[in-house]
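The pair is quoted verbatim below.
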Amino acid sequence: MRRRAFLGLALLGLGACTTLPRRQPAGPPPPVPDKLDGPYRLDSGDKLRVTVFEQAALSGTFSVDQAGYIAYPLVGNVAARGLTTQEVAGALTRGLKKGYLNNPDVTVEVDTYRPFFIMGEVRNPGQYTYVNAMTVETAVAIAGGFTSRADEHRIEVSRRLNGKAYEGTLPPNALIRPGDVLKVAQRLF
């Protein structure tokens, strides 16, 4: 009997001294690389306002289609995905110079940005209209705010640039981009 009690105490003592390795929770993705904060690049879902000086028939609003093009009169399909508005204006100018206008003055502006998406621990996850200079805080507010389970300091973003997907984290005061997919993580406790 004594021997069993001693063995039991020895095992309890051994258990108290032994520590098992703790499983670390997966950390957040790294911050979004700085190169993703360059000039705005167009993609499917953006609507462009094209103005050709003194050419009302060639001015109007055009959508970037799923293939990344705008269908423009006289010129045809013009690539827009991954380009800036200035680059699209240059392509339209070159197209109009080919037998249509001598010296076209073309400007291109974003009329309506493609939407952003927010999911995870917000009250109303979903798709929302992007507003210029929108921050993570503003996006969360539009989605009804954080839930009680939200980790308010861990907002993950998935962003596409030039056909590549990037993932990272953003601080609450960071600017988001049209097309961004934000995910508010859940707190551990």
